[in-house]
Amino acid sequence: MFGVFDNLLYGLGVALTPEHLTIAFVGLILGTAIGVLPGLGGTNGVALLLPLTFHLSPTSAIILLSSVYWGALFGGAITSILFNIPGEPWSVATTFDGHPLAQQGKPGVALTAAFTSSFIGAAVAILLFTFFAPPLAEWALKFGPPENFAVLMLAFATFAGLGGGDPAKTIFMTLLGLLLSTVGFDIVSGAPRMNFGLVQLQSGVNFIVVAIGLFGLGEIFLTVEEGLRIKGVRGRIGFRDLWETWKLFPRYWATIIRGTILGFWVGVLPGTGATPASFMSYGLAKQFSKYPGKFGKGEVEGVVAPETAAHAAGIGSLLPMITLGIPGSPTAAVMLAGFFIWGLNPGALLFQTHREFVWGLIGSMYVANVLGVLIVLTLVPLFASINRIPFGILAPLIVILSSIGAYATNNQVLDLWIMLGSGVMGYLFKKLKYPLAPLVVALVLGDMTEQALRQSLIMGQGSIAIFVTRPITLTFILAAVALFLLPLFRSVRRRPRLPAPAPAG
Amino acid sequence: MHRAETVFAALLLVGAVLLIPQTLKLPVAWTPTGPGSGFFPLWLVVGVVFQMALILVRSLRAPVPPGRAAPFIERESVRPLLIVFLPMVAVISMLRYLGIYIGGGLYLAGYMIFVGRQRWVTVLLVSILLPVALFFIFERWFLLPMPKGTLLEYLLYGR
Fold first, then answer.
1. How far apart are CA B153 and CA B159, in angstroms?
2. What residues of chain A score a pLDDT lower than 70?
3. Which of A122, A133, A129 is nearest to A370 (CA)?
4. What is the ipTM of this complex?
5. Any CB–CB contact under 8 A between A455 and chain B?
6. Can you name the residues that pair with A192 across neighbouring β-strands?
């Protein structure tokens, strides 16, 4: 067995090969562009690029997709600050103080603060990741079907308990996602089922197609409806901005530590991700501040808090993905769908069977984070100018790219109709405040859930007692039940509910 | 908005109830190899029906906000939405003939003319060059065959 440090050095070696460095660079540039563009987010950006990874090695593929994710995390901040348009849901909180700063003639300071705090948040989170992932994976290796099922229940329960949306709708969306995953054929007997007599549905409802529809087209429909206007501040980062901003940073050490740990933890919990983490971190920073009145008017700390948390959460959301096979965010869910396509079985075994893949990914987190902050610090004007592409060209282009991405996964036209239908549903769901993330995650995890449940029941000879007689299983099940009941408990106490954002990211 | 919520919940409920017979066609009980293939879908559908009923009842019982209700969608937003959506339906329906490149080019051009109000030169350049670029990226570089449609296949290969 290798120590963590040996593995890490090995992973850095993998990530630093010229091929992988180039891939990370391309991924970061693409990701930042995706983050800057309204209507294209990390989730559908990664989904659109997934078909392009079919011909890459799994290691190159995961480095490309994760770099896109990091890039999108950086890119979201650029439009938030310069244009007051959050390029991504997790950068909504960055607009609160970032845009006022830009309007006061300090866009460089706001951007530097955002990128630097993203970098610090991510760097600390990557360290946590490196040391948490191997023991967690080791532990998870002992899991049998009942434990796996219990962990999956816990994952779904966190959506309902901590997702912040309406629990009834969250549970509905989870069930709907699981139900969609049963279309096609039975995973145990191989018999066709739930396909409404359509042969093309035999292979199942493709997750990527649904994600592209829900997140890509749905978002386009919403943006078109709202009518998009872009009026912004020009941004450029000079050396004085760097110095001026970095001078302030030691002052915010408490906010940075809080944001990072909170972000990492929230990111690790399945079903949450970067968006709620950024809001929570902003709220806490305001509460702990000596001058809460300055927040919302251009306080640098108000940029630092959400950005550290969002990046830490982005990193954290990959932890359960790589160790347990459970995505911590919708974007991680898309990556997880890629695992199957690349011929990998997600979960703890990866650490033993695919060392290059796992440690290459971890190594590339270090590399891509350093590379990413350098790219965004130098190329801000270039990325900001992307927003001068008229929406009249951008919208149809995204539609075409979505169609190509959806078609490429299975080479069948039916998938385009499924994508279009998902787009309409995504639009309606979003307008009526049905959370999308649980559906997407449940659709990816559906087969795994059903298999774990059925195998457990076989082990228990048809009795559900198997879920309460094994200590690890029981602990997870109890935690899941508690999370499911949490919203109920909250509404009984009738505390004024904060308008929590829908989980995404 | 409130009415839209209720109607949407009712539609979803009806859809879920209609799914029950689909699952009952499958073996839902215990079989020699454990739970049958319909076991998981059936319980999911039951759960969906229950949740939707809950959401519907709650929505029906919720007090209607006073004053003129905010509409689900503003009247002036309907047109731009349809301009995005309907041509998509048209292009996908005719995909067999147009293919994704020509169809996509037409879609781009149409959108740029009617919504983007771009100059003719821009429209022509973008809607020809972009599909050509995509063609080379996907067909040549990444070797992902896209539906080219009878028209493009005729132009390329003469059949």
1. 6
2. 1-2, 38-39, 87-89, 162-164, 197, 228-235, 270-273, 387, 490-505
3. A122
4. 0.90
5. yes
6. A185
For tokens 């408990």, name the residue.
A489
Asked if the Cβ–Cβ distance from A221 to B84 is below 8 Å, we say yes
Enumerate the H helices of chain B as residue ranges: 2-24, 39-61, 75-93, 95-111, 120-135, 149-157
**CA–CA separation, A208 and A434 (whole Å):** 19
Taking contacts as CB-CB distances below 8 angstroms, the residues of chain B near A179 are 19, 41, 44-45, 48
Tens digits of per-residue pLDDT, A423-448?
999 999 988 888 888 888 888 888 88
> What pLDDT sits at residue A142?
79
Quote the CA–CA distance of A307 and A29 in Å, as a whole number.
Answer: 19
The whole-number pLDDT of residue A503 equals: 44
* Residues sharing a CB contact under 8 Å with residue A18, sequence separation 6 or more, in sequence order: none
Selected residue of A403, A429, A457 to mutate for chain B interface (largest B Cβ count, 10 A): A403
Note the pLDDT tens digit of each residue in B65-124: 666 666 777 777 788 888 888 988 998 888 888 888 899 999 989 888 887 777 888 888
Q: Do A193 and B81 touch (CB under 8 A)?
A: no
Query: What is the distance in angstroms between the Cα of A417 and the nearest Cα belonging to chain B?
Result: 8
10 Å Cβ neighbour count for B1?
Answer: 12
Interface test with B, best of A173, A400, A425 (most B CBs within 10 A): A400
Tokens coding B71: 């509409």
**Is A47 in contact with A345 (CB distance < 8 Å)?**
no
